[in-house]
Amino acid sequence: MYAIKPENSGEVSMQRTFWRTNALMLLSLILLYNFRQLLQYYSSFSIATAMIHVNQTHLLSQGLLIDLAQFGLLILLLHLIWSLIITLSCRPWFYLIRHEGIRTQIWLIISLSHFTLVFATNAYLFPTSLLGFLRDTPLASPLGLTVLGGLITTQFLWSLYHLIGRNATLGLVMVTLSISYISTSKVDETYDPIDKTSPNVFIIGIDALRPDHLGYRNRDNHFTPNIDKFLSEASIFDETYTPQARTYVAWMSLLSGQYPIKNGARFNLAPPELVQTEFPLIRELKQQGYMTTYAMDERRFNQIDEEYGFDQVVGPKIGAADAIITNIADIPLINLFIKLPLSEILFPYLYMNRAYGKAYDPILFNQTVSSSLSTNKPNFLAVHFCQLHWPYTSKDFIDMDSAKWKGNYNHFMYQALLSKVDEQFHHFMDELMNRGFLENAIVYLVSDHGEGFMLEQDTLANHNINDSSNLNVNAWGHGTNILSQEQSNVLMAYRKFPQGSPSKPQMVSGIFSLIDIAPSLFSELNLSLERSDKAFDGIVLPKERRSKITDITEREVFVESSRPVKSINASFIDDRKVLSETASKYEVRENGRIVMLPQLHNELIGEKQRSIYYKHWQLAMLPDYEELILVDTKMKTWSSITNYQGSAPWVKMLTRLCEHYRDDQGFDKTGQCQNAITESQSMQDNNITNLNREVPSHP
């Protein structure tokens, strides 16, 4: 191939080049890491420091150590392969040139060209990456990437030609192109089930979606045109509440049709042995021939998986390593690699993970979910989109014109990301429609909870202007304060797609809960509970705009908080502070998952806030406040019971609240149930006595 082979240009020089390249890689990673730390509010090491609050034996969990070791080794392996590619690219030049100084210059040029291509591609595909500093430059443009990529590819092919010959190089190129074509040109089959009578069932959840930010509540809202269009043709159950404003608990309640006190899911990351992990809904659907799928793009706090009865689960891996890996993974080569399907296996904590927002691709998640659906059986799919969840990051920059800046950063970013999740919803519905899944389908669109931003419009006014009580009735986040109505009030809408008659668009009056979906599906699909199953707490949702069913007009629903965490009830959530405050309450198990310590579970239940809704009233019991609180949700006012004078049936509500939570450890430590009821009975007796005195006696 080449007749002349210069002296001292053999394997020693190539080996030295390989190790020099690795050294340059290591130095670059160190410099880039430090550069990134200058831009971050906190470092990955500070998070590691905060984790000292976790029992050291838990940190030595086999599953956690394996996950972290696998991630570290794969980073090392990828950079070694990259070093090998750079070294091979130098090989033909080294065979042509004797001078070591010129060889070094060639090596530096090739290395810098590779680095530039990777950084420019990272900036183009992931512009919000902290290392995307080449964004908006000619290099990070389609033309720049094409030219630079073409030069580097040509250089590498020349090195392969020099190493293995023409035929082998051409064969390798053809195999690579074939694999690329097959992986990118896959056409999903259309839906053609054997049983055409059973409808597909889709429950689509959008994390933290506030109903008051949608068009049906306020016509001035234009954040979500696609969701608004869907709702314009759906039945909306306007006054719907989540049993608890936390994702895992909300979904557990939705799928079981039961309140947390019955299904056992009282917290995110609750010990699985204390939770009812079998859903009668999923069991019965599987017996009817349904393929059951649960899909979620962020799973740090939601542990629902195949153990809960689903045939398959789509989304990133569940584990304690998630919080660590997503904080250190913003490395250009890793960002590019997780665009490949193979990364689902190699980087399970990063692939399709909304928690790693800089590289999360909502369209990829949509396509993966739709591709997982059966084309010959009816499907049950519960899917949850988390783009609206804190920390409001995205791989693309937000549209500044899509939100209104009023000095509240979190709320500004939330509004901006509403348009992104709206686009994701629109794309997903198009996917289902184009492949025929909506030809006969039931669709529920829900949110698991709302979100508190300490907005002036969310503040409750004190009904008694002379009351000087210092009560916090507004809060940040979700699950932090049950008096914060925007945290618990959620979206729940129903739409039936043909075959048959579709649902009529309407606003259904009444008071509802996410626990109503499971019994409603049982009724619509003619399913039956087994004798050993616990009864549903939810009701069958009405089909009419105004129902005459007593259960609707006279029902009450219950809402509880999660455990109080001061570091979460803040405008900026600092991972270090959250870990410092909460880590001692959790353990990392051998499978690498983090769960609440079982021995503290009941103790933490005693710290919950609890409430009951009836019509437009909410009665709340707060463990750190001596009095009961009554809220008029229509007038947006609150009052302590001792200062309340009105017709609200608070005694009846209190009785039901006490009955519902009476078995909770630590519930009603101050005896408010008994004291208030006794006082009420005494007042009623006095009223009767006074009434008897006023009525003249007959001779």
UniProtKB/TrEMBL annotation:
Tell me if Transmembrane is a UniProt keyword of this record: yes
Q: Where is the composition biased (Polar residues)?
A: 678-692
- InterPro entries tied to this protein: Alkaline_phosphatase_core_sf, GAG_Ulvan_Degrading_Sulfatases, Sulfatase_N
Region: Disordered; residue ranges are 678-699
Q: Which UniProt keywords apply?
A: Membrane, Transmembrane, Transmembrane helix
Q: Does the keyword DNA-binding apply?
A: no
Q: Where are the transmembrane segments?
A: 17-35, 71-94, 106-127, 139-161, 168-184
Q: Pfam families recorded for this chain?
A: Sulfatase (PF00884)
Domain Sulfatase N-terminal: from-to ranges? 199-523
Q: Which PANTHER family match?
A: SULFATASE (PTHR43751), SULFATASE N-TERMINAL DOMAIN-CONTAINING PROTEIN (PTHR43751:SF3)
Entry protein name: DUF229 domain-containing protein
